[in-house]
UniProtKB/TrEMBL annotation, chains A, B:
<dbReference type="GO" id="GO:0016491">
    <property type="term" value="F:oxidoreductase activity"/>
</dbReference>
<feature type="domain" description="Pyridine nucleotide-disulphide oxidoreductase dimerisation">
    <location>
        <begin position="341"/>
        <end position="441"/>
    </location>
</feature>
<keyword id="KW-0676">Redox-active center</keyword>
<keyword id="KW-0274">FAD</keyword>
<dbReference type="Pfam" id="PF02852">
    <property type="entry name" value="Pyr_redox_dim"/>
</dbReference>
<feature type="domain" description="FAD/NAD(P)-binding">
    <location>
        <begin position="6"/>
        <end position="317"/>
    </location>
</feature>
<dbReference type="InterPro" id="IPR050260">
    <property type="entry name" value="FAD-bd_OxRdtase"/>
</dbReference>
<dbReference type="InterPro" id="IPR023753">
    <property type="entry name" value="FAD/NAD-binding_dom"/>
</dbReference>
<keyword id="KW-0285">Flavoprotein</keyword>
<dbReference type="InterPro" id="IPR036188">
    <property type="entry name" value="FAD/NAD-bd_sf"/>
</dbReference>
<dbReference type="InterPro" id="IPR016156">
    <property type="entry name" value="FAD/NAD-linked_Rdtase_dimer_sf"/>
</dbReference>
<dbReference type="Pfam" id="PF07992">
    <property type="entry name" value="Pyr_redox_2"/>
</dbReference>
<comment type="similarity">
    <text>Belongs to the class-III pyridine nucleotide-disulfide oxidoreductase family.</text>
</comment>
<keyword id="KW-0560">Oxidoreductase</keyword>
<dbReference type="InterPro" id="IPR004099">
    <property type="entry name" value="Pyr_nucl-diS_OxRdtase_dimer"/>
</dbReference>
<protein>
    <submittedName>
        <fullName>NADPH-dependent 2,4-dienoyl-CoA reductase, sulfur reductase</fullName>
    </submittedName>
</protein>
Length: 464, 464
């Protein structure tokens, strides 16, 4: 009988545990031993759900856990929590593992999966490590913030929270803290919140946030976190002003967690993410795989590699890696840059390229922006939405779509996401056979209205 | 100065008036005279909105009117209401027009647009013309039904309504009548309601309708409408039973209104709809155009011509016809058979082919059906939905999708509609970059889960 091969997974979350689960579906324990090493105390949870747990939409931390460690172990996946990998030796096919003190033991592998995720940006500012400054990246972060909220919840005065960063996490946390009864200020260095949108669309988000009572201060950089006599956070200082704070939440985005990979000489892209082939194998390595927030992915619209930290991609990467290690065949074809989010009842979505991204990719383009409604104008609940579309000059190829609106706006971006995958032109999109009935859409779906206008813009520009 | 050409439009609704408006955008009155002839008393209204007007979601008939006759006339479109065309003479380039008594006058044209719409099926049954039996095809139908409801609304006992036909119109009218406080029975000859779905999906609709308190009796044919001593409707009889009714609504579907076209020898398809080329020109005729509910359209999935009466297609046809008559260039590429509807909070959607349609088109296929939710399972309001997918044997090409669920289910069909237009395989769909965040979708969107399962089914069947 042949000895079982060993698959070692670094990182017990979306990409890592999907890879482990999928490989286990294809290979019995006698064929493949699977060891998953997780530095923290939780595995297989929805990090994207943390803001909703904080906000109270999700009652218990346990609801965010897709599969418990026991469930993994029952399926013969040797998941080890609080176990850190301190060194990779890809030439020697081994990793150094520390589960307590000391420098740790070497563990050999036949297949290595690097799924180390991303780490939140934490600027090097005075006071940044003071009690009362919270990240929201991990379950432990979430629990700590929730405990802080519950403590302050008994205070008789309304507490103040400052959120640093107005990206997805920032606006989601603003909503969560409003729901927890805080007065909330969001600070961002950019001119408009949501730099995943063009500024003209981001402005709509800022205006809506202000109407929701979220103080939104943009175009200003945080310079320090001020602490009181008790050492706890008291305010956040910017270049121009100081904002009182009982609580500070950092939502400044993330970077790939690839220190170990870098030290081991594995190939990294411009953003610091691991570079893989489409089978999710680390470039130049036969038996090292990587997926999730620690890799760069191919952007099918620009042809460039990008870092996009999203649970849905991580899960798909894991699926592909597990299939390939399990002896099957799968590839991850790349992304088109779709993201959807909300702040209270405002839905925010994008796919493809922003104007700035299209320019950096060397593309010439036209834009079209339209206003429409989520349902037939005469139907109750018809809510306004704005759709912006980018199309390539001359060819008319769809390059990107951004949507800001109310209920029913966000997921409309999926139509554009599929059209991008299929390299459709905006003129082709004009006649897409989308679902129509008065409770669901105007006669011309807002995405089609935008496509019509973009088509006209392409034609007007066509002679130049 | 050259004399203006004349464009004559028969039918003052979606297709006809879009064609007129678009042609007017491109040609001045001195270049093109536009005459639109409408048999009824209303033009440019949303027929699809009538059930919601009846149900009270839409307050006034006027809300359904996209553009008033005065607005058309201000744009130099000579819209004539209560004006019927009684004969076409395509060889002589003229139509016979009657606006009062008599046989009418001939009106010559340079371009003719046939947009005569569809007529509702009205089976030849005893009592079918009795007072209290209503259609819901036109504004006049709607007004008459609404007046009947308002009269019965003062009755102290809860009134009974029977809806004959459980298709889109039937279920929408069931909802409307429930909202008007009626006890509602829906009768249909088929085994399940919504024959635009496969029976296994239609069953979900029946079960949901029963839970909503709508008595839904299927597999039974209506044999007569029974009248009382006052001559008014009293009950609807089927082969098996009799259902008391103060009011009967017919929702049996429609057929193309092409009697004039047939008499004039214009080419009709199997369903009786006019056959056109992709520019919406009637086949074999240089200057006769047709669009909307009176034509057949190319089904891009099966390659066959089909009759699909939908306002959104009619509007696009009109846009294409008006562009072409106006000297531009446009084509209507065909449809993929998308439709979405709802009955109370149940959303029902489909695109592509049903099992029976795929079989008649000579296609071999596999199916996959999955259960998922509209949002992340842990997020409030996550509602169950069922997605059924058909994929072609061997090639794995997507053939169709059906969705039944609650809020957020219906418009997900659009992803499949775009994928059908792009001839994607279900395996390609598996990795589509759809918008993900817990309030919007599970980690794998339900459509992707169905695509994964369909991919596995294609592979299993692949060796045969």
């Amino acid at each position: 009988m042949a000895t079982a091969q060993r698959m070692v997974v670094i990182g017990g979350n979306a990409a890592g545990m999907s890879a482990a689960s999928q490989a286990r579906r294809l290979k019995r324990p006698g064929e493949l031993e699977i060891v998953a090493l997780e530095r923290g105390g939780y595995a297989s949870y929805s990090a994207c759900g943390i803001p909703y747990w904080i906000g109270g939409d999700v009652a218990a931390a346990g609801d965010l856990i897709a599969r418990t460690p026991e469930q993994h172990r029952e399926r013969d996946i040797d998941l080890r929590l609080h176990t850190e990998v301190t060194e990779l030796d890809p030439d020697g096919c081994r990793v150094r593992v520390r589960d307590g003190g000391g420098t740790g033991q070497w563990l050999g592998y036949d297949h290595l999966v690097i799924a180390t995720g991303a780490r939140p940006l934490r600027p090097d500012l005075p006071g940044i490590d003071a009690p009362g400054v919270h990240g929201v990246q991990t379950m432990d972060d979430g629990r700590s913030l929730l405990e802080a909220l519950e403590r302050t919840g008994t205070a008789s005065t309304r507490r103040r929270a400052v959120v640093v960063g107005a990206g997805y996490i920032g606006v989601e946390m603003a909503e969560a803290l409003i729901r927890r009864g805080h007065r909330v200020t969001v600070l961002d260095r950019a001119q408009e919140p949501m730099t995943t949108l063009d500024p003209d669309m981001g402005r709509l988000v800022r205006e809506a946030m202000c109407r929701m009572g979220i103080e939104t201060v943009t175009g200003t950089a945080v310079t320090a976190v001020r602490t009181g006599a008790d050492g706890r956070v008291r305010a956040v200082a910017t270049e121009d002003a100081e904002y009182e704070a009982d609580l500070v939440v950092l939502g400044l985005g993330v970077r790939p967690e690839t220190g170990l990979a870098r030290d081991a000489g594995l190939p990294l892209g411009e953003s610091g993410g691991l570079l893989t082939d489409l089978a999710m194998r680390v470039r130049g390595r036969e038996n090292v795989w990587a997926g999730g927030d620690c890799v760069e992915v191919l952007d099918l619209v620009s042809g460039l590699d990008r870092h996009i930290a999203l649970g849905t991609h991580a899960n798909k990467h894991g699926q592909v890696i597990g299939t390939n290690i399990g002896g099957g065949y799968a590839t991850f074809p790349g992304v088109v840059g779709t993201a959807v989010s909300k702040v209270c009842d405002l839905e925010i979505a994008r796919t493809g390229l922003l104007e700035s991204q299209a320019r950096s990719a060397g593309l010439r383009f036209v834009t079209a922006t339209i206003e429409s409604t989520s349902r037939a104008g005469y139907y109750p609940g018809a809510a306004p939405m704005r759709v912006k579309m980018l199309a390539e000059h001359r060819t008319g190829r769809l390059l990107g779509v951004q949507i800001v609106g109310r209920e029913g706006a966000g997921k409309r971006v999926d139509v554009a996401a599929v059209a991008l995958s299929a390299s459709m032109t905006v003129e082709q999109m004009t006649f897409l056979d989308l679902g129509y009935a008065p409770p669901f859409s105007p006669l011309w779906d807002p995405v089609l209205v935008a496509a019509r206008k973009a088509t006209a813009a392409v034609r007007r520009a066509g002679t130049h």
